[in-house]
Amino acid sequence: MSLALEKLVDVLKTAGEPTRFRLLMLLSGGDLTVSDLTDILGQSQPRISRHLKLLSEEGLIERYQEGAWAFFRLSREGETTQLAGLLLRQADPTDPVLVRDGERLAEVKRIRSERAQAYFSRNATEWDELRRLHVSEAQVEAALVDLVGEEAMDSLLDLGTGTGSILQLFQNQYRRGVGIDASRDMLSVARANLDRAGILKASVRHGDIFNLPAEAGDFDLVTIHQVLHFLEQPERAIAEAARVLRPGGRLVIVDLAPHSLDYLRDDHAHLRLGFSHQIVNDWLGKVGLSVEKVIDLRPQDQKDTPALTVTIWLARSPVAAAPPTTVTRSSLPLENAS
What we know:
Blueprint (H helix, E strand, L loop, with lengths): L4 H12 L1 H10 L4 E2 H8 L3 H13 L3 E6 L2 E6 L6 H9 L6 H27 L4 H4 L6 H12 L4 E7 L5 H5 L4 E8 L2 H14 L4 E5 L12 E7 L8 H10 L1 E12 L6 H6 L8 H10 L3 E8 L12 E7 L22
Parallel strand pairs: 4-5, 4-7, 5-6, 7-8
Antiparallel strand pairs: 1-3, 2-3, 8-10, 9-10
């Protein structure tokens, strides 16, 4: 996409300031808050906010609100997107300033990850109870059963399996079930639950949701149940789930609709305060999945207990195209043969 001379010069001036270029480099590694960026760069919040405002005005970055927190990311669309990518690719990755920024960024992400992991570990045996903050689990499970249907499947993969509830829910439909979780405490709980239910065809294992221990095209159904809001980059988990789907396989995502309960960040290590239909639909589309249905399960009025809307997405991978038919002379009708 070409830019008018005046716009091109303005973008180059904005991106060419050292701190602003460092901000662009950092945001190319994922969505960050002003607080994250001030910690990494060691500059004041007003200064960082001013730089972010200028970058946003030129269309180089996007801002989105989650409760009281504002997140920033590189623009995915727009006339300046290609230019920003070109500029960032010219940076020397061994530059000492950029290396130091990268190390601090890794530390910020490590602390976030450890907080979430510690939360899971502390609350492994109480996880099902904590889910009662949302619309009732029975209502969610009924909607899932209705959405997935009763057809048998060869294989099911449950990402962030937690207590193994999804493996139990669909036990009569799959031949092979696998649950993946990053918390060893959670895996212990899931194994105990599966043993108690006598489910021998399902197993759980420790794994990274961004780098699954599975081959491409391994599973008929992949589920991601109340996991994305704990992740730094939810779209990467969706991409990895899409990778392991068989042609025509389905992905089911269960998560919170956008909300403003900020205390969930500190008390329950939520990194994201829910997801809109549009953002998840966009992520699904970018990895080649077609959205078949989206359901919102809205809470009933509860005066004493907070209840959050749960959204369920059902998407499908493309069906493999049939191989082209090879036409030979012998297969042609006699009247066309010569």
